[in-house]
Design a protein that fits this description.
There is one protein chain. The protein is α+β, with helices and mostly antiparallel strands. It is built from six helices and 19 strands. The radius of gyration is 20 Å and the shape is globular.
Length: 337
């Protein structure tokens, strides 16, 4: 199928869009535009929300109807839960993890529900299936028109992995990656791309918190600073910026980006029924429990509470990791979403 022309919803400039794209980011004004659904016989029936299915690999991928983009607000979140249901490596509990995180954000932390965009395999809206293109589109929406005072959250529950670094910008020689639903055919979400999409656009006064419950996820946002917790409550910041073979700027435009990862880059993330009797991500449960239980937390207190929860539930083979775009005192800086 040939590419087709569509106008940007922001500036009106026409662009030629590849047939498989569900949305695009305008290079002129950076606005996100949802692409018109297309079939060989014409537009998909939007009124009846008809969705012809394209068979790709071992699972069907719906061709999209045209949804209304979600609302904007000072607090916005993208929550991804991938179960890989029709594969041999399916995960249990990812959708429950998303529901647990959404409840925390909406009920406890007062994120407007219309500003929390969820992607799981249970969603009926084809734009909310956690494919690579849909996740990238949601990430671009998250930071679009971001301003000082905005609080953004990116959450992922699913498989993570690592692969050889081809750019020469990784100290350990590996890129960390997330696995979208269609990664076997469309590729992985590599840390370089994640950083470029949601970290570097962050302006002064805005903040991004990522919570990534996946294996090999320690530096999956490619943030330059790692907080290494030591014995007796001590910690130190480890700067990755100038130690790599090919240093590349991975920071923000002045905003603060912080990531809580389930484990270090060379560790696996546990999914266990030990916490609730049902399968759950160790990071997701310990993070939401700590924030629920203590109304006033510092980053250091939150990290220690999660470490304690891991040990209590026999998950001491992994430890949550904090990375950041800037140094701060973890025991005095309040954790506020």
């Amino acid at each position: 199928m040939a590419s087709r022309s569509q106008q940007c919803g922001g500036c009106g400039v026409s662009h030629h869009i590849p047939p498989h794209f569900q949305s695009f980011c305008c290079p002129a004004c950076r606005a996100i535009t949802w692409v018109r659904p297309y079939e060989a016989g014409g537009l998909v029936n939007i009124v009846n929300n008809t969705m012809p299915i394209v068979q790709t690999g071992t699972y069907p991928v719906p061709r999209p109807a045209l949804p209304a983009p979600p609302a904007y607000g000072k607090k916005r979140a993208v929550l991804c839960g991938v179960s890989y249901l029709q594969t041999t490596y399916k995960l249990k509990g990812s959708i429950n993890d998303v529901q647990r995180m959404k409840y925390l954000l909406v009920e406890k932390l007062k994120f407007p529900s219309e500003c929390v965009f969820t992607l799981t395999e249970e969603e009926r809206d084809p734009m909310r299936i956690p494919t690579k293109q849909n996740i990238l589109t949601a990430m671009r929406w998250l930071v679009q028109n971001c301003q000082a005072g905005d609080s953004l959250v990116f959450y992922f529950s699913g498989h993570g992995h690592r692969q050889s670094d081809g750019e020469g910008d990784e100290l350990d020689g590996f890129d960390e990656v997330l696995c979208p639903l269609d990664h076997a055919t469309e590729g992985l979400l590599v840390d370089d791309e994640i950083n470029e999409t949601i970290v570097r656009p962050l302006p002064h006064g805005a903040k991004l918190h990522a919570i990534v419950d996946a294996s090999n996820s320690g530096t999956v946002l490619d943030l330059p600073l790692i907080c290494r917790m030591k014995s007796k409550g001590f910690y130190e910041w480890e700067d990755q910026t100038y130690q790599t073979p090919r240093p590349i700027y991975k920071g923000t435009r002045g905003g603060l980006a912080v990531c809580f990862s389930a484990c270090d880059d060379d560790q696996s993330a546990a999914r266990t029924p030990a916490f609730t009797g049902k399968m759950a991500g160790a990071l997701t449960f310990s993070f939401t429990q700590a924030v629920h239980n203590e109304p006033v937390l510092t980053y250091g207190r939150l990290l220690n509470a999660m470490h304690s929860s891991f040990r209590k539930n026999n998950q001491s083979n992994q430890g949550p990791l904090l990375t950041s775009s800037a140094r701060f005192d973890v025991y005095s800086k309040k954790f506020i979403l």
